[in-house]
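Q: Could you predict the 3D structure of WXG100 family type VII secretion target?
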Amino acid sequence: MDQLTHGADSDRLRAIGDALVTLAGRTRTVEGDGTAQAMLLAMHWTGDDADRFGQSWATARTRLAEAADLLDTYGGRARTQAAEQEAGSAGATGGGPPSSAGPRLPMTPPLAAADLYDELEDMTPQERADYLESDEFRDLAVADPEGTKEALDRAFDDGLFADDPVAYADYLEQYWIDRALQQAGIDPAEWDPSQGFDGNRDIVSAVYEYYGELYLANPDLEWAAMANMIGPSFAGGFADLDLARDVAQGVLAGAPLLPPPHAGNLAVLASLSDADLAFYESTLLSMQQEIFFDQGSMHQAYVDGGIAEIERMHAAGVIDDNAMQAWYGIDSGDPARVDDGNHRLLWREQNQIIVDDYQTIYSHFPTGPAVTYGITLIGEPTIPGAQTFGEVFPVTFDVETPGPHTIPFTGIDNPLQGTVTVTTPLPEGNVADQSSRWALIEQDTWPAFADLTDEEIRAIVESDFDTRLDEARPVNNVDRIVARILSGFDADVRQ
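A: Sure. Here are the predicted structure tokens for WXG100 family type VII secretion target:
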């Protein structure tokens, strides 16, 4: 199709082209928003219905992408013809004004953001909630995000959502998630944990680089710095989860006489299937995504709007009292309160946001307990001075040497008999257990981070993340990890 129209004026052609390109952008936004919501739903919905929905959405997503490409193609053609007609008109001699082929297409949405407040005011609570779920509202929010937010914020402040605050809270949370995604350079349509580490490699790095940029712009955002620094150990873990098999096999070969249940866990770990590994890898990637949606949205709201936007999130019910107090502390500028505020955000991450994900992994029987044990055993924090789980909470056991306590018939202590206390590098605990994981953070990881100077933190955060990730990946350290574990046994003999 070489010609879209014949005899139409260039202004109208350009209007058509602009409208088609705008629709293409809105279609891609629908695709992206739908994919993000589908991923959130998949975290909490399982079974045959969930599988069917996932398959149906995959088909719909493809069709939306095709429709967006088609709109872009013909929008571009219309713009090109408009330019060609203008060039032709400029070169022609004489002639009157160009003919009109009809009224121009409207270049604003059916409802302008400036009128949104009045429209919401005339709606019932249910109508407002339904409208915020509509395609019309989605188009408006894409066309004028700032104007839409201003109208929604005013409506909330004036009590229009008092009977149903959830609709506004959902909008506000998604608004700041979208802003964080934009700042991080992440396309939500491409962020799919089910595609594994290799399918999300660039996004994994973009997440931690975003955290680093937050800290470099404002050193009071210590949680972001810590997240950037620990990122290589966390991301490296799910990038090379299959290496857990190699490590387990190496430890079993080098130390065959291990106490139960540790020997049993290592045996299960050494024989994991590829299907099990894929499940654990995608679940860990989903955890990274959940953390970003929660912490990224709060941090971006604070960066863009200060404490007032955090207070708005709290008033709407997006965040709780603990998070609000955290941000008051961070915003105070007082070093002790800043530290406490960031510590509260860390507590939120570990004890509210991802606690259920760890339990999902642990409860994936029969291999879940062994996999979380393996993560606990192999994990090495990439924060200077921080120790492994086994170094902080090692497994110890006593062995009685044979023979009587005294030399027979004398009552004299037998020097050949006693108790041998064996300290192992094996972890006494499991990261899937909420209290054990938080104890490790409280007693070692957080203090190690807090002991670093601002200059030391900045030097690490400013360094190339991908280089740090490659250096931390178990695939590049498997021999050293096995050697660390095998050399970590110690014995203390007591009579």
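Q: Anything worth pointing out?
A: Confidence is low (pLDDT under 50) at residues 1-8, 92-110.
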